[in-house]
From TrEMBL:
Protein location: Nucleus
Gene3D superfamilies referenced in this protein's UniProt entry, alphabetically: Vaccinia Virus protein VP39
EC category name: transferase
Statement: the UniProt record of this protein carries the keyword Transferase: yes
Keyword tags: DNA-binding, Methyltransferase, Nucleus, Repeat, S-adenosyl-L-methionine, Transferase
Protein name, UniProt field: DNA (cytosine-5-)-methyltransferase
Upper taxonomic lineage: Eukaryota, Viridiplantae, Streptophyta, Embryophyta, Tracheophyta
Length: 166
């Protein structure tokens, strides 16, 4: 039995998604190796900037616009416990690519997860979204399948060599 945690981003996906995997085989079988990462991928980390005490309180940058903002702010002048993480250029580009017009197609989601446009999902829209969200990213699944195939082919070639020697 071999346990491993693989990061989808290391196999070409634009997401930080770690998945646990288990290779298991009978004792006479050879377990496949884990696929080598194809990309350097570091997950997002929360970085809280250190600031001087007099810098800490932040004033609201504008007057409340909506009824909700007015209600939430009440009489507060200072914004407490607010941490804004700077968006990386890559994430900014990703956000810009999100279709914003009415009638935008949900089909963009599977493409972002690595599914080909020809892939067919089954069920109603909720089931399709669940299939997409719960799936192992196809590029990662392909990398695992390639390693499994290598192990099977290695076993076949080894057993052929031994049968020739006998």
């Amino acid at each position: 039995v071999r346990f491993g945690v693989l990061q989808a981003g290391a196999y070409g996906m634009s997401q930080s998604r770690k998945r646990a995997f288990i290779w298991e085989a009978s004792p006479e079988e050879t377990l496949p190796e884990w696929p080598e990462p194809m990309h350097v991928f570091t997950g997002p980390e929360l970085k809280i900037p250190i600031m001087l005490l007099f810098e800490a309180p932040q004033m609201y940058k504008s007057e409340p616009v909506s009824w909700f903002q007015k209600k939430i702010r009440a009489d507060m002048l200072v914004l407490n416990d607010h941490i804004s993480k700077a968006m990386s250029e890559l994430n900014l580009i990703r956000c810009q690519k999100i279709p914003k017009q009415p009638g935008s197609d949900w089909r963009v989601l599977p493409s972002e997860k690595g599914f080909s446009d020809s892939y067919k999902f089954v069920g109603d829209i909720q089931h399709k979204h669940r299939q997409i969200g719960n799936a192992v990213a196809p590029p990662l699944a392909f990398a695992l399948g390639r390693k499994l195939k290598e192990a099977v082919e290695m076993k076949a070639s080894t057993s052929q060599r031994y049968s020739c020697v006998l």
